[in-house]
C-alpha cells in the first residue's frame, strides 16, 4: 500500500469525522497560557472560527485518528463493510496539525474520535496519548474533546478525563432495539455504563467542597455529552426526547446532540437514503432546550404535536401553547417567571428584562415589543397595561396566522 | 457651543476626564460638541481649555454605566461621546434609568455595546495568523479589519491565548505587537504588509472542504454567522463557492449510488469471527446467570436503566436478602445496596452482628425504574408485570444459591417471593415456609426508614427493623449449630 500524504489523510479523516454534530468548545474551566509560555486558552464560551456552507460552526479540529474499524454499524460511514478510503494518523501527526491550526487561530482545539482498531483499549490508549502529548509536551491549553470507546478500561477513562475538557460517548440511536439491529457489535448497556462511570468521576470533582480536603484531581471540566442519530430508525420524537431526558437525569450530560441521519458515501442498503430530516432535528433541539431551561417535561412538549411527533410547522413552545390556550393570556405585569417562560416568543432574556423593568413601571404592549425580537407571536398570549388579547387567544385561525411562511429554496 | 477635544478614538479614561469637567461646570449636553483626533472644530465653537479641573469625584453613577461606557466608547459612531455624556447627565437626576430596559437612550447604548461585543467576538474568531521566519524564529502576523475601535481592548485576549508566540495584529487604524513579554501598540497598516503563507493554509482549506456536509447545505445560516464582509481575509473563503456549486450533485450521487460489495478485509474478518453460541437459557452456574441478565428483555425497564444489577455475595450463602430494585447509585455502579438505603442496611446488619460478606444480597427487579425530573431520576415502584417478569432471575438465584433463610425487604420483594401481594404488617416477625424448604422473613425496606419524616415514628420503625434483624441473626446462629 502506498503511504498517504498528510494532506490526503487529513481529507479522509476529516470527511469521516463530520457526522458527529458536536462542536461545542464552551463550558470548560477558565485557563490561559500566560504563566506557562505555551499556547491556548479557554474562557467560558467557545468561539466559532469559521462556518461551512452547511451553516455549522467550525470550532474544533474534528478528526478521526483512523477510520479503519472492526465494527459494522449500518449508519456509519466507517463501518467495516464500507468501501470508503481508509487512513490512519500517527499520534504525532494529529498533535502537529492541532498546533499548526491553533497557532493560526483557525480553531479552539481538537475533537478526536476514532474507528475501533485491534481492541477498544488499544484505540482509547492512542487517543489519550494525543491529548497527553498536547498537554505535557506542548503545554497546550486549548480545548480538547475526546470520544470515549464504551468498553475501554476504566483507567483509560480516568486518564482521558485528566487531559480532556470534554468526553463523550455516543448513544447512537434512540432505542436499544434499533441499536442492536443496526450496530450488532455495540451493547446499549455498555454505552450507558460508560456514561455512568464518567458521571461517577464528574461527581467526585464537585463533592467535598470543604477547604480542609485536598482538591480532587481535575476531570473533564466541560463534562460529558452524547449524540443520537435521528431518522435512521423508526423511533418517534417522544421516544427520542424520553431517551434524552433519561440521559440528562442519569448522567448529568451537558448536551445531547441530535444528528439528522444524512446520506453517506457507500451507504448501507438497510437505511433510508433520503435527504436528512433537518427540520425535525431543529425541532428536537428546540424541545430539548424547553425541557432543560423552560421547565417543560417530555409529555407536555410531545402533546403539542400529533402521534408522538413534534409539529414541524411551528416551534414546540408555540405548538404547546396553541393546544393549551386555557393557560393564556399571561399578565406580563403580574405573572411569575415560570409562567412568563411559557409564553411563545419570550425567551429567558426577554423574561429577565420584563421582570426587571416592571419593578419601575407597568409594561405596555409597546414596552414588551421593545424587549423581544418579534411581538407578533407574543401578542395573542399576553395581557399588558394597555392590552388584552380578547378573543384572539381562542381564535381558530391563530395557528394558521402564526405559522411561518415556507421559505423559498435557495438558488445557485 | 463648547467643543471638547479628545485625542484618542476609544480611550475611556480620557473621555471620563473631560466628562467630569463638563459635569462640574454644569454644562448641559446640548451645549457641547465632541471632537476627536485631528477633526476640525466648527466655526462658532469655543475650546475646552477654560474648563476647570474638579478635584475628587463630582457625583456618582451606577457601575453598570461604567461598564457600558467602556464598550460604547469603542463604537465607530462619531456621536458616541455625546450620547454617553447625555446619559451621564440624565443619571444625575434619574439614577435608575439603566434598570429600565425600555428607555430609548439606554436601548441605543445597549445596542452600541452589543455591536462592539459582536465585533470583538468576530475578531477573536476571524483573525488569521500567517507564519513567517524572522532571524530564525517563527513569527505570526495577521491582518484584520474591525468595524469599531476594538483592537486595544481586545488585544489582551490574544496575549492570554498566544502567550508563547511572537505575534502582530495589523488593522487599518492601529496595530498590536506581542513579543512573548510585552504588548505594545503602533499605528495602523495595510493588507500588503502581510506575507503569503503556503502549506498549512492549504491544509486548512482541505479541512474546510472535508468537514462540510453537502447534504445539509444552509448558506443563509453560514452568511449570518460569518458575514460576507469578512470573507476577503479568510483563507478558507475561496472554497465556499465551489463547495456550494457541487453540493446538490454530491448529495444526489450519494443517494443514487447502489450499495457496493463489502471489501475483502471485511469478509475475512467476518469469516474469522466464531459464531456466537446460540443463546439458551440453560445455565450451568450462577455466574452464567449473572452474565445473561444484562441482555434481559422480559420487560421494558432495560431501555432506560444503565445496566442490570444482579445479586452479590457467596454463591452458597445461607441467607439471601431481597430488596425491591436498584436505585440511582446501584444503577450507576452495577452493585446492589450501595446507595443511601444500602447504608441504612449496612448499619442495621452491623448493629445486629451480621456480616454482610456472608450474605447474598439481591433485588426482586434487576433494572432501575424511574422518571426523569431535570437532573434527577425519581424512583418508581415496579408494577406487578415487571415483578412477575423478573421472577425468572430471582428464581434462578434461589435455585443456585439455595439459601436456608430468605429475607424480603419490603412489599415488592415479598410479592416476588410469595407470588402474590402481601402486607408487611401481617407477615413480619415470623418465619414463613417456602416451597423449596427455605424460610421467609418479611420486613420493611431500609429506604422506608429513610422516608419517615417524624423522628419518633422513625425511631420506632427502626426498632422494629432492628428486632427483625435480631431474629434473623438468631436463626443464623441456630443454623450454624
| Corresponding CATH architecture of the largest domain in chain B | 3-Layer(aba) Sandwich
The CATH homology group name of the largest domain in chain B: Uracil-DNA glycosylase-like domain
Q: What is the CA-CA span between the terminal residues of chain B?
A: 110 Å
Structural class of chain B: alpha/beta
**CATH T-level fold name of the largest domain in chain B:** Uracil-DNA Glycosylase, subunit E
CATH class of the largest domain in chain B: Alpha Beta
What would your notes on this structure say?
The complex is a heterodimer of chains A (412) and B (481). Chain A has 412 residues and is of the alpha/beta class. Chain A has three domains: 6-272, Alpha-Beta Barrel (TIM Barrel); 277-323, no CATH class; 328-402, no CATH class. Chain A has helices at residues 6-15, 91-103, 120-137, 154-163, 176-182, 188-206, 237-251, 278-293, 298-303, 316-323, 337-340, 348-357, 365-371, 398-402, and strands at 50-51, 57-58, 60-64, 109-113, 143-147, 166-168, 224-230, 255-260, 330-331, 382-383. In chain A, α2 crosses α3 and α7 (237-251) packs across α8 (278-293). In chain B, the strands form four sheets. Chain B has a five-stranded mixed beta sheet with strand order 3-4-5-6-7, covered by helices on one side. In chain B, strands 9-8-12-14-13 form a five-stranded mixed beta sheet, with helices on both faces. In chain B, strands 1-2 form a two-stranded parallel sheet. The longest helix of chain B has 26 residues, at 455-480. Classes of the chains: A alpha/beta (412), B alpha/beta (481). Chains A and B meet through α1, β1, β2, α2 and α6 of A and α4, α5, α6, α7 and α8 of B.
Amino acid at each position: 500500500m502506498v503511504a498517504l500524504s498528510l494532506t490526503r489523510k487529513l481529507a479522509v479523516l476529516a470527511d469521516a469525522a463530520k457526522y458527529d454534530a458536536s462542536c461545542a468548545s464552551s463550558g470548560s474551566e477558565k485557563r490561559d497560557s500566560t504563566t506557562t509560555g505555551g499556547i491556548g486558552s479557554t474562557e467560558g464560551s467557545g468561539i466559532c472560527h469559521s462556518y461551512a456552507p452547511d451553516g455549522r460552526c467550525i470550532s474544533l479540529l474534528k478528526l478521526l485518528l483512523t477510520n479503519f474499524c472492526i465494527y459494522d454499524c449500518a449508519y456509519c460511514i466507517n463501518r467495516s463493510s464500507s468501501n470508503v478510503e481508509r487512513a490512519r494518523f500517527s499520534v504525532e501527526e494529529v498533535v502537529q496539525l492541532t498546533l499548526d491550526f491553533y497557532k493560526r487561530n483557525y480553531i479552539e482545539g481538537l475533537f478526536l474520535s476514532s474507528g475501533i482498531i485491534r481492541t477498544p483499549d488499544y484505540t482509547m490508549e492512542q487517543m489519550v496519548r494525543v491529548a497527553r502529548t498536547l498537554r505535557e509536551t506542548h503545554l497546550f491549553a486549548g480545548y480538547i474533546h475526546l470520544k470515549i470507546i464504551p468498553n475501554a478500561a476504566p483507567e483509560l477513562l480516568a486518564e482521558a478525563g485528566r487531559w480532556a475538557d470534554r468526553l463523550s460517548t455516543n448513544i447512537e440511536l434512540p432505542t436499544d432495539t434499533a441499536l442492536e439491529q443496526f450496530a450488532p457489535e455495540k451493547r446499549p448497556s455498555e454505552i450507558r455504563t460508560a456514561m455512568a462511570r464518567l458521571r461517577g468521576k464528574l461527581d467526585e470533582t464537585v463533592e467535598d467542597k470543604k477547604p480542609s480536603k485536598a482538591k480532587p484531581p481535575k476531570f473533564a471540566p466541560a463534562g460529558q455529552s452524547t449524540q443520537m442519530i435521528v431518522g435512521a430508525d423508526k423511533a418517534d420524537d417522544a421516544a427520542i426526547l424520553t431517551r434524552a431526558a433519561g440521559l440528562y437525569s442519569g448522567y448529568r450530560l451537558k448536551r445531547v446532540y441530535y444528528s439528522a441521519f444524512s446520506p453517506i458515501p457507500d451507504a448501507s442498503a438497510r437505511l433510508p437514503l433520503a435527504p436528512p430530516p433537518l427540520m425535525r432535528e431543529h425541532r428536537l433541539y428546540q424541545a430539548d432546550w424547553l425541557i432543560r431551561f423552560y421547565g417543560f417535561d417530555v409529555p407536555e412538549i410531545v402533546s403539542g404535536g400529533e402521534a408522538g411527533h413534534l409539529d414541524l410547522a411551528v416551534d414546540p413552545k408555540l405548538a404547546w401553547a396553541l393546544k393549551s390556550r386555557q393557560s393564556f393570556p399571561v399578565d406580563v405585569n403580574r405573572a411569575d417567571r415560570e409562567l412568563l417562560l411559557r409564553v411563545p416568543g419570550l425567551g429567558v432574556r426577554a423574561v429577565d428584562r420584563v421582570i426587571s423593568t416592571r419593578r419601575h413601571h407597568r409594561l405596555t404592549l409597546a414596552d414588551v415589543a421593545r424587549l423581544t425580537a418579534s411581538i407578533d407571536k407574543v401578542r395573542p398570549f399576553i395581557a399588558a397595561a394597555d392590552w388584552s388579547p380578547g378573543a384572539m387567544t381562542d381564535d381558530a385561525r391563530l395557528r394558521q396566522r402564526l405559522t411561518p411562511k415556507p421559505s423559498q429554496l435557495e438558488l445557485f | 457651543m463648547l467643543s471638547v477635544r479628545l485625542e484618542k478614538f476609544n480611550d475611556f479614561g480620557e473621555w471620563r476626564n473631560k466628562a467630569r469637567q463638563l459635569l462640574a461646570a454644569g454644562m448641559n449636553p446640548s451645549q457641547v460638541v465632541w471632537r476627536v483626533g485631528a477633526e476640525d472644530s466648527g466655526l462658532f465653537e469655543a475650546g475646552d481649555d477654560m474648563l476647570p479641573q474638579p478635584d475628587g469625584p463630582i457625583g456618582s453613577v451606577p457601575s453598570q454605566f461604567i461598564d457600558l461606557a467602556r464598550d460604547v466608547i469603542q463604537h465607530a459612531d462619531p456621536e458616541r461621546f455625546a450620547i454617553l455624556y447625555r446619559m451621564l447627565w440624565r443619571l444625575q437626576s434619574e439614577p435608575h434609568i439603566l434598570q429600565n430596559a425600555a428607555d430609548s437612550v439606554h436601548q441605543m447604548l445597549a445596542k452600541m455595546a452589543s455591536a462592539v461585543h459582536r465585533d470583538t467576538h468576530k475578531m477573536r474568531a476571524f483573525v488569521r495568523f500567517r507564519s513567517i521566519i524572522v532571524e530564525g524564529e517563527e513569527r505570526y502576523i495577521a491582518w484584520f479589519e474591525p468595524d469599531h475601535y476594538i483592537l486595544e481592548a481586545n488585544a489582551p485576549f490574544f496575549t492570554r491565548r498566544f502567550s508563547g508566540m511572537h505575534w502582530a495584529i495589523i488593522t487599518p487604524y492601529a496595530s498590536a505587537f506581542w513579543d512573548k513579554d510585552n504588548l505594545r501598540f503602533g499605528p495602523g497598516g495595510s493588507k500588503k504588509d502581510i506575507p503569503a503563507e503556503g502549506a498549512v493554509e492549504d491544509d486548512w482549506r482541505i479541512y474546510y472542504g472535508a468537514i462540510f456536509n453537502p447534504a445539509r447545505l444552509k448558506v443563509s445560516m453560514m452568511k449570518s454567522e460569518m458575514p460576507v464582509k469578512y470573507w476577503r481575509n479568510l483563507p478558507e473563503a475561496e472554497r465556499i463557492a465551489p463547495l456550494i456549486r457541487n453540493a446538490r450533485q454530491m448529495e444526489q450521487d450519494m443517494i443514487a449510488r447502489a450499495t457496493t460489495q463489502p471489501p475483502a478485509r471485511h469478509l475475512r474478518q467476518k469469516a474469522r469471527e466464531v459464531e456466537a453460541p446460540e443463546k439458551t437459557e440453560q445455565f450451568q452456574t450462577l455466574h452464567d446467570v449473572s452474565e445473561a441478565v444484562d441482555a434481559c428483555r422480559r420487560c421494558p425497564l432495560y431501555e432506560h436503566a444503565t445496566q442490570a444489577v444482579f445479586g452479590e455475595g457467596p454463591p452458597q450463602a445461607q441467607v439471601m436478602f431481597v430488596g425491591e430494585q436498584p436505585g440511582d447509585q446501584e444503577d450507576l455502579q452495577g452493585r446492589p445496596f450501595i446507595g443511601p438505603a444500602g447504608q441504612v442496611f449496612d448499619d442495621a446488619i452491623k448493629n445486629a452482628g451480621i456480616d454482610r460478606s456472608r450474605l447474598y444480597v439481591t433485588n426482586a427487579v434487576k433494572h432501575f425504574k424511574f422518571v426523569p425530573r431535570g437532573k434527577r431520576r425519581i424512583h418508581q415502584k415496579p408494577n406487578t408485570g415487571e415483578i412477575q417478569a423478573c421472577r425468572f432471575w430471582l428464581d434462578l438465584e434461589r435455585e443456585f444459591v439455595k439459601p436456608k433463610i430468605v429475607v424480603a425487604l419490603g412489599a415488592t420483594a415479598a410479592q416476588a417471593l410469595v407470588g402474590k401481594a402481601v402486607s408487611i404488617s401481617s407477615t413480619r416477625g415470623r418465619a414463613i415456609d417456602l416451597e423449596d424448604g427455605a424460610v421467609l422473613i418479611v420486613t420493611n425496606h431500609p429506604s422506608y426508614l429513610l422516608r419517615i419524616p417524624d423522628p419518633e415514628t422513625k425511631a420506632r420503625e427502626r426498632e422494629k427493623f432492628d428486632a427483625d434483624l435480631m431474629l434473623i441473626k438468631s436463626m443464623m446462629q441456630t443454623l450454624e449449630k
